Amino acid sequence: MLGAFTFPPIDELFVWKDVLFKGTPFALNKTGILVLASSAILVFLFIKGSRKMQLVPRGLQNIVEMSYEFVDRGITKDIMGPAAGGWTPFLGTLFFFILFLNIWEIIPGIQFPPTSRMAIPFYLALQSYVIMLAVGFKNQGFRYVTHHIFPPGVPKALYILVTPIEIVSVFLVRPFSLAVRLLANMMAGHILLTAMALLTAYALTNAPPIAIGPFLLGIAVTGFEVLVAVLQAYIFTLLTAVFVAEGMEPLEHH
Amino acid sequence: MSLLLHLAAQNPGELQKGLSSIGAGIAYGAAAIGPGIGIGYVVGSAITAMARQPEMQGPVRTTMFLGIAFTEALALFGFVLFFLAKG
């Protein structure tokens, strides 16, 4: 009975046709429009919330201040130290941009996270990677690299083994895993939600009483995806903060 | 089994597709074992730490998420590999 059910090929779930400016290099598909929309909403909310600042915050200003403080306390000062408050605008933008991108996954009618296309996580990871290297080189010079690939306190003979591993894990796998973590999580969530929706639709036409199973499961998965969307934005920002913080303190000589 | 092989011999393209699907499934399954155990250890130890010192809950939770993120990466590489291998 269920043998006739076929899952559509993966490309059908993630590759969208161009909608605006067809044929030009600026052609936009659903992914691009959602990215632009998220940044517009983000800018609008935060500017509107902080335009008329009052001593006793109300309404939107309250939410905006709480969001800023969450990133400031929970990520910046926790990871980079109490004096690093200047990093909050960057990390806060990163956190809320990724969160707004991820949350499209569960908005009815849209239900597609732009972060499940490699271009966006890859760009964000590349940006974090460049900032991490720039901060490291600025504060520690070339010792930033040597400190990583020749970690102190390791017996000299072990460097044959340790150095290649460290080069790969710090300078190659780090940006890659940052991008893939976000991509794979959102991709898996999207596929899971699609599977539940398609199973419900299939069961409704063939054996209606069974449809309640995938339908309820789909609702549960939607709730779980809210958690994943927030958590992945948090983890991406947290890891960026950790990587940047590594290069912030000048190294003591030994 | 022999019937399957007989069918496969008739259209070799199908055999390759089927085998690569099986390989992709095994690859992801194997890639999920280690991180599964690893995340279990990370969260378990974090709970122990939080129960012993509730006042350290904030830092422990942050570090726990970091540990989960690093461990989880391996499973996600497997997930990506699944799509690459399935072809």
Describe the structure.
The complex is a heterodimer of chains A (254) and B (87). The longest helix of chain A is centred in the C-terminal third of the chain and has 48 residues, at 159-206. Chain A is globular and about 70 Å long. Chain A is 69% helix and 0% strand. Chain A is built from eight helices and no strands. Chain A has one domain (11-246). In chain A, helix 2 packs across helix 3 (59-80) and helix 7 packs antiparallel against helix 8 (212-246). With 254 residues, chain A is mainly α. The model of chain A has no long low-confidence stretch (mean pLDDT 88). Chain B is mainly α and 87 residues long. Chain B has helices at residues 2-10, 12-52, 57-86. In chain B, helix 2 packs antiparallel against helix 3. The longest helix of chain B is centred in the middle third of the chain and has 41 residues, at 12-52. Chain B is rod-shaped, with a radius of gyration of 21 Å.
Q: Could you spell the SSE succession of chain A in H and E letters?
A: HHHHHHHH
Largest inter-chain interface? A-B, 19 and 14 residues
Amount of helix of chain B: over 70%
Helix/strand/pairing class of chain B, anyone? mainly alpha
Largest sheet of chain A: none
The SS-based structural class of chain A is mainly alpha
Strand content of chain A: under 5%
What's the average pLDDT of chain A? 88
The helix/strand order of chain B is HHH
Features:
heterodimer, A: 254 residues, mainly alpha, 8 helices, B: 87 residues, 3 helices
Overview in brief:
The complex is a heterodimer of chains A (254) and B (87). Chain A is built from eight helices and no strands.
Topology, please?
The complex is a heterodimer of chains A (254) and B (87).
Chain A: H1 10-14, H2 30-49, H3 59-80, H4 88-103, H5 119-140, H6 143-149, H7 159-206, H8 212-246
Chain B: H1 2-10, H2 12-52, H3 57-86
Helix pairs in contact in B: 2-3
